[in-house]
Amino acid sequence: MAQSLLDGEDDPAIVVNEAGKSPYVLVCEHAGNRIPRKLGTLGLAAADLERHIAWDIGAERVSRVLSRLLDATLVMQRYSRLVYDCNRPPEAADAIPVMSEATAVPGNSNLSAEDKMARLGEICRPFHEAVTRVLDRRAAYGVAAKLVTIHSFTKVYKGKTRDVQLGFLHDRDSYLGGRLVKSFPGVDARLNEPYAPKDGVLHTVNLHAAPRGIKSVMIEIRNDLIANERGQNEWAQRLSVPLIQAAS
Amino acid sequence: MAQSLLDGEDDPAIVVNEAGKSPYVLVCEHAGNRIPRKLGTLGLAAADLERHIAWDIGAERVSRVLSRLLDATLVMQRYSRLVYDCNRPPEAADAIPVMSEATAVPGNSNLSAEDKMARLGEICRPFHEAVTRVLDRRAAYGVAAKLVTIHSFTKVYKGKTRDVQLGFLHDRDSYLGGRLVKSFPGVDARLNEPYAPKDGVLHTVNLHAAPRGIKSVMIEIRNDLIANERGQNEWAQRLSVPLIQAAS
Questions:
Q1: How far is CA B188 from CA A94, B88, B175, B228, in A?
Q2: Residue of A157, A206, B33, B76 with fewest CB within 10 Å of its CB?
Q3: Looking at beta carbons, which residues of chain A come within 8 Å of B210?
């Protein structure tokens, strides 16, 4: 497809450790906060583009370390979720949010259908096609893949403080979430918190894992725990232990 | 991707009435019985390639007429399901069947991972990407699409005769199926027969409709009813009536 938005800028998908031997395939939809040059800053202040509304703070490094510890292939998305939220279907109003939490996104107002198709076609689809290729390869080799998506959430959301530290989100398939949630003594770990299927956030899992019948879980880490490299290393390692145990 | 299987032969997806105004998007995964030249006849007799095991007899013309009656975009797949069954995930053993009903498919035995990836990458993926593009376009324009897949089934399966004439198959979303099944007086119409979600045949619906939250149904017509043009026209017209009523 002719690129009208990225116009030669980097592909949205970053595939790490493509030859990884683990059955786990890691996905990080909100790893990056880059904005395509043509969209400027979407009308936002530079500081807003560092906030949770733009990306999942800390998630990229947790994903990269976890990929190394598990020897798992990782697929990340480099553009800000404010440009296109790859964990939403294109039918969702928040796929290209006009308002994120309490911040208006001027560059997302009054988009034409062509503007929306450019973001969908040049960011969302190439990213999801990269995930599909990684999973297809495992299917062709007879490897039963397991999909794990890595996210972080903000401690204070719309003025309310959240106690939950670690969330394991699932839709129909609760196998991995049910195992993982029991593996963190002393941590406030919960199933389907701070988000649940009704919030429409299980898109990647429902798009890639459910139709294949492969196991999956969406992991949400409170971002104050992974604000620096020490925390990111710590939580990648802590997550790797029950994941390795649940691998077979 | 470099083509190692099709090598310049026709694309698997046939998109009909791309500018159709209906909210319905029709899909016919098993419309064709073509075999890529490189695969010969898959070791089968010419007569086997005309049987139900190779394609959904009558489904192409029912789909084309229905597309015209509804002014709906239709996406069909031209290669035989014996080459690749686009209504199965790549993880399913019957995506590339070694045995179909009681017929062995010699050309599908002992395939390498590369052979499987070529079929998946050159037939399954381009077809499903065509469906995705059609649905994405509707999402960008704010049209709530409805996905209807058209299939036919054989009256005698593994030696047993089936009474059911018309099946409306659904997984979680029973809205369209529930309405349609009541709209055929004097016809043996049933929900989730002759196949149901447990048979793993809801793949297209689960891949394209469920993650988007759009309504869907899979229609199965007994193929003795649509063996000729008269029957194909009749059943396309009979199906169009309740579909038009359920459109809004």
A1: 43, 27, 19, 20
A2: A157
A3: 206, 210-211
Q: Which domains does chain A have, with CATH numbers?
A: 13-245 (3.40.630.40)
pLDDT band at B1 (very low <50, low <70, confident <90, very high): low
Q: What is the mean pLDDT of each run of 10 residues along chain A (248 residues)?
A: 87 98 98 98 96 97 98 98 98 96 95 97 98 98 97 93 97 97 97 95 98 98 98 98 94
B45: which residues sit within 8 A by CB, 6+ positions away? none
Q: What chain B residue is nearest to A142 in terms of C-alpha separation?
A: B91
The complex's ipTM?
0.96
For residue A59, the distance in angstroms to the closest alpha carbon of chain B comes to 24
Is the Cβ pair A213, B200 closer than 8 Å?
A: yes
Query: In the numeric block, which tokens belong to residue A131?
Result: 């995930």
Task: Name the residue facing A214 among B91, B113, B137 (closest C-beta).
Answer: B91
Token output for A223: 């971002």
Cross-chain CB nearest to B136 (options A92, A120, A203):
A120
